[in-house]
């Protein structure tokens, strides 16, 4: 059903639940799960001006990505098969504005489904949740989005 699923991550513990769900959904069609981390750029500052800073962030993100995917993979490579499931896992670290980068990546890679974390909305003040990354992605993405709480 879903051949290519995207899981945007921020390396918090809650990412595991979204990743588990994505892998289980991809398992049905022996699909691919792309795990994406976006390094947010400092507004109005070219990457070239902060190369050392961004390089350090990218190295840290690569280590965290490896740790996040370790329980799922037989090998630590950028593309690997998950243990037991046969689902192909791909990992990617990119720079940009998170919402734009996630939606652009999904469109560019012909993603069938985005699975991402969200938080519970306070029923007394529901409009406070409208500015979140998950809300914006769910509205702007061309493909279906599954929000995991």
The tally of structural domains comes to 1
Assess the beta-strand content as a share of residues: 15-25%
Category by helix and strand content:
alpha/beta
CATH topology: Rossmann fold
Spans of at least 5 consecutive residues whose pLDDT stays below 50 are none
Total DSSP E strands: 6
First-to-last CA distance? 23 Å
Shape: globular
Number of helices in the DSSP assignment:
4
Structural commentary:
Helix 1 (15-28) links the parallel strand 1 (4-8) and strand 2. The protein has one domain (4-148): HUPs (Rossmann fold), CATH 3.40.50. Helix 3 (98-108) runs parallel beside helix 4 (133-140). The radius of gyration is 16 Å and the shape is globular. A 6-stranded mixed beta sheet has the order 3-4-2-1-5-6, sandwiched between helices. It has helices spanning 15-28, 51-69, 98-108, 133-140, and strands at residues 4-8, 32-40, 79-81, 88-96, 113-117, 145-148. With 149 residues, the protein is an alpha/beta fold. It contains 4 helices and 6 strands. The model has no long low-confidence stretch (mean pLDDT 88).
